[in-house]
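Entry 14. Ran structure prediction on the chain below.
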Amino acid sequence: MMRRMTHRGQRTRRAFSLLEILLAVTIMALVMTVVYGTWNTVFMAWKRSQDVTESLHRQRVVMETLVELTSSAVYFGGDAETYGMRGDDNSGMGSEISFVTASDAALPPSEAELRGLRRVTLKLDQDDEGQLCLAMSNDLATGLPLGESEETWHTLSRDVSEFVVRYQDARDQSWYDSWREDLTLPMAIEYTVMFSAPDEKSSPLTLVRRVELVTADYALRNKGKRPEAGSGTSTNTPSGAPRSGNQGGEQ
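Output, structure tokens:
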């Protein structure tokens, strides 16, 4: 009889009470909550870092594309209407610039026949979904005068919320918001591009890039108005230069 009671008492001591089970479940839930919270914080930080990195990469590609297209601008004095540069300041939509370039940068495979010389036009526009974007069109550089050819638009970047172009005249070193002279080219072009923030915690970023045109001197000689010797090319931006957002200028 004593053995049977002792054995039954041992079985009672080995079992967990309801309170012990509830306590263990509570501790386990707390541990899982802490682990999940830590993992979620690390994951969100990694994801935000990836988004910012990808955004910076896209911004760099856009600016490099603008520089390559512009620095490869060409001009032939015998056909100024076809090869001239045109820059307009569209109220409320930023700037629009059009010129002939020898660069194949950002040329879609479907328009491979335009390799060599093509007219590119850049401006802010809306894509098929109604989203604001930096758009680019490619046209034949020959055959039709400026403004008379049919344009097919492509989205260069959906991250751009502001696009401003200014032009430096080699004759007086002044900067202008538009360029309407077919017989000459500006000595330099300044792009101010504002990129939208990649997330709610970041601020919009504005990049500024100044590009010199090596063909500007030829255009002035062709017109018979070459800059005076010693005038140089000033890299200083006048105080009236448009600026907005955080400056991340690349000079």
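Helices lie at 2-14, 18-71, 80-83, 216-223. Will compare against last week's run tomorrow.
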